[in-house]
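does this look right to u?? 4'-deoxy-4'-aminopyridoxal-5'-phosphate version
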Amino acid sequence: MKTLYFDTAATTAIAPEVLARMLELLGGECAYANPSSAAHLPGQAAAAVVASARVEIAAELGCEADEVVFTSGATEANNLALRGIALAHAAQGRHLVTSVIEHKSVLACCAALQREGYEVTYLSPNSAGWVEPDAVARALRPDTLLVSLQHTNNETGIMQPIAEVAELAAQAGVLLHVDAAQAVGKFAINLQKIPIDLLSLSAHKFHGPKGVGCLVVRNRRQLRMQPLMHGGGQEFGLRPGTLATHQIVGLSAALSLAAARRATDLAHVGELKRRFLQQLGCLPMQVHGEMARSSPYIVNFSIAGIGSDALINQLRSDLAIASGSACSSGAVEPSYVLRAMGIEGEPLYGAVRLSFSRDHSLAEVSAAVERIGAAVSRMKELEISEVK
Ligand code: PMP
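got this back:
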């Protein structure tokens, strides 16, 4: 029996169309040169490939091509946004605002900045899983440099009120960074319409290759930023190192494909999630986070009396899903995201995440539900299910 993969929030498979474009480029003769080798024709050909990918990405996101800074993914983009702004603007202020439910690449970067003398205000979400715009407004101070808020939470799928926060940050003259790793490709994000200053994304979350992403830096020419690394001055001096042409092409191809398919994909995953919840509804389960604000790509739930680790262990070879808890040095750490929403006890230790994609069929969703149901029955029979 083939393992059914329902962990697309962790990563997706490369789309065949994207792979074809990457392979064409990797195997071809026209663009293997260094895109920075402007002195010769092969270098210029590679530079042209990168330039057109940049234009394609910018057109999709509603920004200028020279505001797209290629990175290794969202982790690096998040670090570049936070540290790059904090270091360059230290004379103006040393205060940042973020939330306790951010991805570790934001939280760990903030913790590092705190050790270097910056102050960070961490906002808590409400019990529905989102940070209230009023809380952001109250946290702003005259020395606040930046607000960093995710678009869509990777564990719960809850979408944050980015448009409202963007308006209030713009009015207060504070920069806004949005970690959109779980949103770009899935939802239309038009930077012409929302005043977001910095936006992070990772290609592998929307059927592109791993190891490439970008930070969009709006008004880059006017905005002071420091690079994380020092080197050859590529990416407008913000991210040195030889550009990975094939990865960049993979990113732009994946984004264009996602844009072309957006309405179809959204309707499809919406139906997958609806059917999943309907079919699993025969078990005593609880969905975490506010349905109306949750991404159709992600569902986070607990089944009464069933511990997440025991369930995932039972499903090991049948179904690839994620646990809300992380096991570090032998101890199970429950999800800090769910905990921040006030979820404790059984629902906390029982939380699991399924994430959908355009590649799933309704039949696979039914099979996933069947496998979960069978695992729960086995666990009840064997009495190995109880949440401690
Ligand atoms: N932010 C969010 C919300 C994510 O889900 C992820 C990936 N789990 C990242 C940032 C980091 O992306 P990457 O590992 O591709 O750098």
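The pocket of 4'-deoxy-4'-aminopyridoxal-5'-phosphate is lined by residues 73-75, 103, 105, 150, 154, 179, 181-182, 202, 204, 213 (CB under 6 Å). idk if thats expected tbh
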